[in-house]
Amino acid sequence: MTFAEWKQLFRTDRSAWTAALEERRSGADPAAWNVAIAAWDPRETGATPVAPGDVPGPQAPPLEGVPFLVKDLFDQEGIVSCASSRVLAEVGAPAAADAAIVHQLRTAGALSVGRTQMNEFAYGLDGFNAHTGNVTNPLDPSRISGGSSSGSAWAVGAGVVPLALGTDTGGSVRVPAAFCGIYGFRRAVDHYAATGVVPLATSFDTAGWFTATAVDMVASLDALWEDPLTAQPLTETPSVGWYAPAGVSIDTEAERAFATYRRDWKMVDVSEGARHSLDRQSEQARWAYNVIGSSEAFAFHRPWLDTHRSLYSATVWDLIDRARHWESGAIRAAQDIRRAVAGILDRELAAFDAIAMPAVHRTAPTPTEVSGDYRTNILQLTCYASLAALPVLTVPVPTGDGLSVGIQIISHPGKIGAVARGLLG
């Protein structure tokens, strides 16, 4: 069901609206549901339906009656945000207020119906969690969902809800959107996007969301995002430059799928200077992301990292703890690289409305295919926009085997909304 269908059902028959949600629970695979959904309560009372047959007036909230799920690191009043961890389940406290973006959604008329699981503390790109289980892919349960916003992506991809919140630090909206065949939007990094959110790395953390269709993504942007510099539409089809890092081997099936979109959207390659500069920075960019990200994560986790070590999974503890061991001057060097990458993208975005890149290098792997190379290749694709703190639209790209990859559309905060509307229609 699309936004429009949920809105119509809510306005005309609230009991049928609730029943439709329960049908989605009863129809979902129980094993997948139990891993992806942290809490489920469709009895939201944030709005009142109009009488049957009434036509909503022009002041009706734009997302009235649209159900959404919340990733388990966004605050909701009275709920402990656990970030799918055992640590915060023990030391956390109920939130005093909703996170800013949760409040925005409710103000727009959307209705929270539950919370979703994720990689522990959002530290991962695979959807694995040693405490809550590994979220599967709605297109093929034998494959991974991607992470860290794994439960939210599964819920939208499986048709449970039409909208779900995620966060994106190093690709945590972009990767699961690509693998699960859905649309994803990552906001620019700003104070608003991180207000009321359990942090991973504050330089890179930002809020985002998933929808199943292009029409719903446009509707969500209309309701939740206005370009800060201008809300004017582009006068013509957005100009999009294409860049794929030389150090990442793109799967043949993915390359073939990307080619169709490159042709349809009339993409041309980014300038040779930008390509060489970004390729030259590739390994350093990934290193800089890891240094800054782990150091900021360490700062947040310092009160518990040693005293509550047994409550962390070994993988997540190691990812955070490595920040103790960076060489002197590493953070300063990483910040220099970050500024260099941001400058390259900024200059190229003066020539194009957006830069397109693969969001992933292949379709979703099986759990046994996830290795160190998986994370390295993914970060090589996602770290550029993260370092530059830019907003990104992820568009799913179906492959011939019924799976999906994705294209990330990177632009400035003042233009990403217009670019998205121009490309999606």
The level-1 CATH class of the largest domain: Alpha Beta
Number of domains: 2
Mean pLDDT reading:
94
Taken from the alpha-carbon principal axes, the silhouette is globular
Number of strands: 13
Tally of alpha and pi helices: 15
Task: Report how far apart the termini are.
Answer: 19 Å
Give the H and E element order: HHHEEHHEEEHEHEHEHEHEHHHEHEEH
Main sheet, how many strands, which sense, barrel? 11 strands, mixed
- The CATH homologous superfamily name of the largest domain equals Amidase signature (AS) domain
Low-pLDDT windows of residues = 45-55
Second rung of CATH, namely the architecture of the largest domain: Alpha-Beta Complex
Secondary structure category: alpha/beta
| Share of residues in helices | 40-55%
CATH topology of the largest domain: Amidase signature (AS) enzymes
